[in-house]
Each structure stands twice: as structure tokens, then as C-alpha cells.
Amino acid sequence: EAQVTQNPRYLITVTGKKLTVTCSQNMNHEYMSWYRQDPGLGLRQIYYSMNVEVTDKGDVPEGYKVSRKEKRNFPLILESPSPNQTSLYFCASSGPQSWVGVYNEQFFGPGTRLTVL
Amino acid sequence: KQEVTQIPAALSVPEGENLVLNCSFTDSAIYNLQWFRQDPGKGLTSLLLIQSSQREQTSGRLNASLDKSSGRSTLYIAASQPGDSATYLCALYNPSGGGADGLTFGKGTHLIIQP
Q: Residues 6 or more apart from A48 whose CB is under 8 A from it?
């Protein structure tokens, strides 16, 4: 089954304790991205990656890191989590993004609910 | 910068009604528009993707239209059912004025279908 998976689905942690949320897709997609969703603010993009070893900041990158060493994986790293990073996080993927061509359908993971105490 | 507005923010209708959800955007130079459904606390499920050259797409009881000149897309749901209750989001791809990677999401319409 074609899908985007995220782990863990739920996480409660304390301020300053480094954590990683994994994201994996099995559709051979080049494009992957991370979003956070907060009430009243909607979806906000954290980082995105056009391909392996290519990552760029989204609209709210502060406090987050990413890496794209393999095509299928795009982990989100919080080096020193703070309470304002409590949120619902989504990973998404799609085929190649083309500035002049067709934008492909986005597929989302099930989400990771993070609470930072 | 592209702005995407979804009105109303919330909608409650009796089961069986046909309904229309709206998505408006300020920059008509979009490449595509996608409608999603999100159940509470869950991920986004793609419903329909309309390319800029298309005017509508249909899937079962759902029909999405796109009018770039007026900066508007609508999602039509026929014969609504309680299982349609969810938040519906639109997202569009606009390299010249969208988010960091050209993608902009609306904040969604929270739909409740009363049995």
C-alpha cells in the first residue's frame, strides 16, 4: 500500500530533551515536507526537500532540523524542544515539483502529536 | 503573497443536503489546486486535484471546480452523509507567490452533517 508513515504517533517529552520524529514514504517520491498544525493558525510548513541532500526552510523553521540522506526518509529533529513546539506534526510527499510543469498530488502521513512540558 | 481563504470556517447542515464549500485565492497564477479532508486529530486525505488547465474534477459525490480568473474554487458535496463530517482544506501551488515552496493552504471549513 502506498503510504507515508510517521513515528511516533504520540510523544510527551520535557523541555530540552532532543527528539526525532521519523517520516518514510514508499512511493519513490522526490519531494517531502514537514508541517505543523495549530488551532487558528492552520498548516505551516517547517522544512521541505526537493530531493536527496536538498533541503530548504519553510515558513517556520526555527528550532527544527531535517536531513535527507535517503530518498524515502525525511526525519524531523528537535535539538532542544520547548513548550511552544507542542503541536500536531505532519509529513507529506509527492512526485517531483516542477516550476513549469505539473504539480503532483500531495500525500500526508497520519500525524504526530507532540507535547513538550 | 498568495492568500487563501475558506469561507465559512464552520458549517452544519442536515443529512441529505447538497452543499458547497468555497476556496478563494488572491493570485490567479496557480498551477494546481487540491482539496483535502481531515478527520479530527488525523492526517489529510487527498480528495481531488485540479490542474490549472482543467475546470473541474469529479469523484463519486464530490465535484470540485476551478475558476482562475475569479480566484475561486468550490467543492460540491451531493447528498451529504454524517460520514462526510470533517474539516475540508484547499491547497494551491503558485511558485511566484505561494509559501516557501509555492504551496499555500487554506485554514479549512469544519463541516458537520447532522443525522
A: A31, A32, A33, A34, A55, A56, A58, B100, B101
